[in-house]
Amino acid sequence: MTPPVLEVQQLTVRYGARFATWAVDLALHGGEVLGLVGESGAGKSTVGRAVVRLLPEPGRVEAGAIRLHGRDLLGLAEAEMRRLRGADVALIPQDPLSALNPVFRIGLQATDALRIHRDLSREAADAEMVRLLGHLGIPEPAEMLERYPHELSGGMRQRVLIAMAFSCEPTLVIADEPTTALDVTTQAQILRLLETLQAERRVATLFITHDLGVVAHLAHRVGVMYAGCLVESASTRDLFRAPAHPYTQGLLAQVLRADVRAAASAALEGLMPVLTEPPAACPFRERCPERMGVCDETMPALREVGVGHVAACHLYGRA
Questions:
Q1: Percent of the residues in the chain that have a pLDDT greater than 90, as a whole number
Q2: C-alpha separations of 51 from 196, 203, 255, 305 in Å
Q3: For 4-14, what is each residue's pLDDT tens digit?
Q4: Nearest CA to 194 among 154, 170, 165, 171?
Q5: Cβ(4)–Cβ(171) below 8 Å
Q6: Residues 6 or more apart from 170 whose CB is under 8 A from it?
Q7: What is the sign of the dihedral through the CA atoms of 161, 165, 166 and 167?
Q8: DSSP strand E in 138-235: where?
Q9: Rounded to whole angstroms, how far apart are CA atoms 145 and 129?
């Protein structure tokens, strides 16, 4: 197999006294979509923001390594990192309205990366963005460049952000819940666009979401996060056919029993803990139906439970 486009090793991020992620390991290859799932607050978006070094204050990477094509991103000066953002790695944020500056026209914002990273003139950048927006199904794309963000629907704003992300042909795209604020029909349209672009350009994509249905459709592999820790990783097919971690099983039970509210809520009772120190025991133990004595004593390591399938659970550490 070719070397990974993105390697995340033992990533630990802290926000003040709180750990947002703890010793997270990920690898992502060209043309692959890795879905990163979990409840709100699990640390999914923190991983994506750490990769592009855009953690909000007071977030900071406390330990670990992040490599893009083998290059250490955490060791780069900010000026060098700015040269990579938009060119080699692009972020599609989850809120298109707040991501676009309300006082500037779409054209000025959407063509910024093209002018900086591809050294295009204003006219050439406008022409390229019109082509991209047309490819994404936006009617009258030339007129779109003259509008302000508030004049666009949520779906149109999201298409603009997708065009911006893919405009400089990056090798890595991080999509941070890009359909969260959209209606179901528009969500489906946006997901089809992302799927088409990813397949056409063979871009490595980290797709962050809480929607397991989206992951089942788009992702080749899935990483499951809980309380800042990666608790399971597998191919999408294996994860849905044979989820190993009790937390993953609970997430899937919620989806499968969505028409039965009592059963769905019973699948995951309780709240996710907030880590203020390194986890000394399983962070899921308070909610786990399989809890054992060892769960209160040690933090389980990721163990292989199948080919390319790992889970951090003491169920798989017993003789």
A1: 76
A2: 24, 16, 29, 28
A3: 999 999 999 99
A4: 165
A5: no
A6: 86, 87, 88, 89, 90, 203
A7: positive
A8: 172-176, 204-208, 221-226, 229-235
A9: 9
Give me the pLDDT at residue 130, please. Answer: 95
Q: Structure tokens of 114?
A: 């093209």
Q: How many CB atoms lie within 10 A of CB 133?
A: 25
Using a 10 angstrom Cβ sphere, with 0-12 exposed, 13-18 middle and 19 or more buried, the burial of residue 253 is: middle
pLDDT digits (tens, 9 = 90+) for 104-148: 999 999 999 999 999 999 999 999 999 999 988 888 999 999 999
0.90 surpassed by pTM: yes
Backbone dihedral angles phi then psi of residue 260, each to the nearest 5 degrees: -120, 95
Residue owning tokens 């953002």: 85
Distances (CA, A) of 3 to 50, 81, 173, 200, 247: 21, 21, 17, 20, 31
Give 275's strand partners. Answer: 19
